[in-house]
Amino acid sequence: MNATDRTPADLLRSALAADPSRPLVTFYDDATGERVELSVATLANWVAKTANLLQGDLSVEPGDRVALLLPAHWQTAVWLLACSSVGVLADMGGDPAAADLVVTGPDTLEEARACRGERVALSLRPLGVRFPEPPSGFADYAVEVPGQGDRFAPFAPVDPGGPALAFAGAGELTAAQVVERARADAATREYTPVSRVLSGLPFDSWDGLSAGLFAPLAAGGSVVLCRHLDRLAPEALEQRRESERVTATAG
């Protein structure tokens, strides 16, 4: 990737410029049988729409805190990169009461109600479809995001030195620190543009966030992101490694 990339959103832009058609995130949910493959271009489109939703309809500004009560999921990757695009702090598993906005899955709706700002809910159902019944007090992401613009431009340049990511027990990282750590992990693990990393780690720690998104992105590689991987039989996991041409495994 470009040496000048200073934010996770920069890394995505470089990946888009290099090869928009290659797979970037392949997601499995072994509780539902779901498999979704997103190219760089497709993921970037979701990120742009979500960033426009954040900046426009939700009126989020650089420096605001967004609590993400979400599992390791392809839509979580979208939200992390959309937050980076706008310049807001993505707080993984953060306290909704201390956040300007909360984004939640279906299992943490009650916890998310502590947020006094805007609330967005994701069904996390296959193909990102909407809730059968919209949860009271929440905007349904699947309803709100399709009409957003396919291109995004921040109202103000994103500061690489601004807070970008928080997760339990680690304080806050700036956007530049996220990129630096991701590059260091990619180098240590010898990831390259042909690396295909399978990760079953949750997104509640740096190890999970790095293996499941940031390090493969920094290396120009791709990720096979697996939720509920413990439900997969060993022989099925080995078959997945072969069929997805996995070169490295984390968790």
Topology record:
Blueprint: H1 8-18, E1 23-29, E2 34-39, H2 40-57, E3 65-69, H3 74-86, E4 89-92, E5 101-104, H4 109-112, E6 118-121, E7 139-140, H5 141-144, E8 163-166, E9 172-174, H6 175-188, E10 196-199, H7 206-219, E11 222-227, H8 234-243, E12 248-250
Parallel strand pairs: 1-11, 3-4, 3-5, 4-8, 5-6, 6-7, 10-11, 10-12
Antiparallel strand pairs: 1-2, 8-9
Could you please describe the fold and organization of this structure?
With 251 residues, the chain is an alpha/beta fold. 35% of the residues lie in helices and 21% in strands. It contains eight helices and twelve strands. The protein has helices spanning 8-18, 40-57, 74-86, 109-112, 141-144, 175-188, 206-219, 234-243; strands at 23-29, 34-39, 65-69, 89-92, 101-104, 118-121, 139-140, 163-166, 172-174, 196-199, 222-227, 248-250. The strands form two sheets. Strands 7-6-5-3-4-8-9 form a seven-stranded mixed beta sheet. Helix 1 (8-18) packs across helix 3, helix 2 (40-57) packs across helix 3 and helix 6 packs across helix 7. The longest helix is centred in the first third of the chain and has 18 residues, at 40-57. The protein starts with 7 loop residues before the first helix and ends with a strand.
